[in-house]
Amino acid sequence: MKIQALAYALLTFCGVCAVHAAEPAAKPAPAGPTQEASSVEAAGAALVKAAENLSEQQIKSTTNREALSRLAQIYNGRDLQRFIWSMQRLVELYPNSGALRLQLAAVYAGQGDKSATYDMLLKMQNLGFAYSVGSDPRFEKVRGTKVWDYAVANLDANARPFGEGKVAFQLPAGDRLLEAMAWDPKRKQLLVGSAREGAIYRADKDGKLSDFIKADPASGLYSVLDMKVDAANDALWVASYGAPVYKAYSADMVDKSYLLKYSLSSGKQLAKYTVEDKTGHLFAYVAVAGDGRAYVADPARREIYKLDGEKLVLVTANPVLTGISGLAVSGDGRTLYFADPALGLFGVDLSTTKAFGVGHSPDSLVVGGVSSLFWYDGSLIIVQDNMVPQRVMRLKLDKDGRSVAAAMPLDAAKPEFTLLGNGAVAGDDFYFVANSQRELYDGHGVLSDAKALQPVKVYKSNLRFAWDQPGISAALKPIPTAKDAKVRFENPGEAKDEAPKAGDK
Length: 505
What we know:
The protein has 2 domains: about 5-25 and about 35-135 and about 145-155, Serine Threonine Protein Phosphatase 5, Tetratricopeptide repeat, CATH 1.25.40; about 160-480, Neuraminidase (6 Propeller), CATH 2.120.10. The strands form 6 sheets. Strands 1, 19, 20, 21, 22 and 26 form a 6-stranded antiparallel β-sheet that branches. It is an alpha+beta fold and about 500 residues long. The chain is built from 8 helices and 26 strands. The chain is about 20% helix and about 30% strand.
C-alpha cells in the first residue's frame, strides 16, 4: 500500500473514531461489543498491519504531516526503527519544533547512540533552544563524556536572560484578559484591548487605564484580539471575534467575527466589515499598509483578506498551513508577511498575490512559535511565545524582502516572561505583554482561578538594540561556549575554549 493511500486511510479512520467517541449513547450499551465497534477495531488492526510494511523510503518521502504524526503514534512502543524514521521525517517537516528534536534525541539516547544524540543536542543549542537535559533520566546512557557536558552547558547557557528591555509598567490585575495593543503616536499613548470585556482602554505611562471605547456587543465589538493604528487617517482597526472567553458571549455570536474601524481621536465607530458565508470566521490579526489599506487574517481557515472599497476580498488561502499567527505589511506596501506557528514565516507579493517562504538558515535560526508579527525599518519583529526560551527577535531582511539576512534577539529568557502576549510598535520601542493571563481560561472561557490573576506586565524593548551588530547570521557558525550567554548572539567565533567534536569522548 502506498503511503498516500495509507495516510488517507489513517485520517479517515481517526475521523470516524472521533465521531463515534463524541456520539451520545441512545440506550445502555449491550454486554458484548457491537458490530460497529468490531468493524472499527478491525479497520484499526488493518491499518496497523499496513503501517508495519512501510519502508524507510516510503516513510521519509511523505509530506502529509498529520498522517505521519498518526504513524508515529502507531509505531511508538511497537516498532522502534519505524518510529525513528517517522520522527526524523517529522523533524524535517517541522524544523522549528524543539519538542520534536528533543524527543528524537531522547530516543537516540535510549539506544545508547551517543553520536546521534550529541549531534541533535548540539544542533539544538546552535538554534538557541534552552532545554535542560542534564538531569533528564532519558539521557542516562549517553552521559559522562566531554561532548555531553559541553552540550548540556550550552543548552543551559541559552536559558540565561539576554537583552536590555525591562517592564515599562503594569496594568491592574483583573478579569479582563488584556492583550491586544496599539500605539497612538499623536497622543503618545498605548491602547489596550480586552478579550474578556470587549472594551478598549488608554493606558498612561504608569499603567493607569481610562475608558476609550466601551463594550458594545450590538456594534460587533466582542473579544478584542488585535488592533492597529493608522494615525495619518485618524483610524483604529480592530479584529473582533465572538469568543467563548467574552463575558457577554451568546449563541448568536458563534463563528461571528468583524473588522471594525474607529476614529482614533474620538473612539466613534466608523465602519464594520465581515465575510458573509455559512461557515463563519475568526478574524484574529490586523495589518495596515502605509496607504491606509487594511488586511485581516483568519487563522482557523488559513485565509487573509484585504479591504477593497467596502468589501473584504480574499488575498490568499492555503489549507496546508497549520494556522496564521501574525500579520504585517512592509514599509513600501508591496509585501504582506504572515507567520505560521509551526512552519515559520511567509510573504505575499501584493502585486501578484503570489506567496513565498521567507528564506533563512534552518541550522541557525528558529522562526516558528510566533504569536505576533510586526514590521520595523526593513525588519520583521517576531514574538515567540512557543519557543524555549521565549523571546522577541528582530529579523533584518535582505533588499528584496524575501530572506532573513541576520537576526538579533531583543530580549530572551527574561524572568518576567511567563507567557508572551501581543504587542505594539511605538517609534523605536516595542511594547508587549510579558505575562499573558490566557492560560487561566479554559476552552469554554471559564476562569479557573480568579486569585491567580496578576497585574499585567507590559515589557518595553528597544527596537534599535545592537543595531550595528551582526547578530545571528544566516550561515552556520561555530558552536559557542557557555561562559558568556552573550557570546551566542554576538561573536561565537571568538570563544577561547575550543568546542569538542561529536566524536570526542
